[in-house]
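COMPLEX REQUEST
Ligand: FE2/S2 (inorganic) cluster
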Amino acid sequence: MPTPPMTADVDLYRDPAVFEAERAAIFARSWQFLGLEADLVRPGDYLAEVLAGYPVMVVRDEARGLKGYHNVCRHRAGPLVGEAKGRCDGEFVCRFHAWRYGFDGRLREATGFGPVDGFDPDGFGLFPIRVETWRGFVFVNLDPDAGALAEALAPLDARLGDQPRRTARVRDSHPVACNWKVYVENYLDGYHDEGIHPALAAEAGAQRHEVHVEGEVALFEASNPQGAADTLWAWLWPNIGLSVYRGVLLLEHMRPQGPDRTVIDHLFLHEPEDPSVDAAILNAERIFEEDAWINERVQQNLDAGVFQHGVLSPTHEGALFWFHGRVAQALRA
Ligand code: FES
Ligand SMILES: [Fe+2]
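STATUS: Structure written out below.
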């Protein structure tokens, strides 16, 4: 007799050892959103963030390219930049003992270090990371062998087509007391709308019941799509949601902080004079609050240890099944 697809092992959502393994196997090997290219205009402009426990930074260099590094000095692990966004004057100067590095990552001067036999500054350059951009978004990847960002986003690119220039932005950040996978699974699940989002479910055309996975992108088709990407919900492995709804583009970065803690960063982009923006953002925030509420309660119930395995609907929860397989594959690799 066939058996239905099952949910993932409950320990995956609460075991600190699993979380550590995921940092290395998933978050150090996938494209992570860092910020907007619009914030990296002049040479020396930088963006920095801590992604899944990895402090990273990206700088615009003198040749107008983007360079990415771990934000960690090779002397004694001090930070090169201290803010999330700022400007360095021609070089990085470590905040601890002022070692100086070029934007090419080379150690220019071990400031005031004193003479030491056998110390070769060339062996103490910054640790590089990958940087690529897509539609003005800056992404980083700690894996030198990762595939190109454009390749990962190709299925979404095809769906988005031409988009208006959205130069205005609103950003906010919300802590949610759940494992990052609980949040992702909720995002990938179009089955819960009637229970959790009654207003959304009642709105014609807003339902996102059909979920297709192409490559490592999940695409949610509205039930009555009106042309290319007028309304779109998408998700990129492992933790980025992207939606276009009522003219507002929302990039949602689900940043893991610990086995039962996730921070959700929202970046709303819109056209400057669009009068529907406030209502669209309020609507998205309400949907977020509804999801955060259910996700925190699901996490409590997973932590309680009573629930071991549930079942997944092949009709509505196929993307979750794919996601569980993808997580397992990453952890095996
Ligand atoms: S840790 Fe950077 S100079 Fe000492
Ligand atoms: Fe939801």
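REMARKS: The mean pLDDT is 93. Helices lie at 16-27, 149-160, 180-187, 193-196, 198-202, 277-304, 318-332.
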